[in-house]
Design a protein that fits this description.
The protein is mainly beta. About 0% of the residues lie in helices and about 40% in strands. The protein is built from no helices and 6 strands. A hairpin with a 4-residue loop joins strand 2 and strand 3.
Length: about 70
């Protein structure tokens, strides 16, 4: 699995645009969200609402292989 990335160090680029895990609210909450660089904002994947105070993010891991 990927390591957490501080938003102050790097935000998602084009290859990372898809859904990401994000930590917010003083690292007490973790959700799936995406970053819109045109609006400089994070949005919940589930509700499409703005997510404030995101501190860290990481790409979602690959899904398990069906066997």
């Amino acid at each position: 699995m990927s390591e957490w990335i501080k938003c102050s160090e790097r935000l998602p680029g084009d290859k990372d645009y898809a859904n990401n895990l994000v930590l917010y609210e003083n690292m007490l909450m973790c959700i799936v969200a995406y970053y819109d660089d045109n609006r400089d904002s994070w949005y919940s994947t589930e509700t499409a609402t703005n997510v404030e105070n995101v501190t860290h993010w990481m790409p979602l891991p690959s899904p398990p292989e069906d066997k």
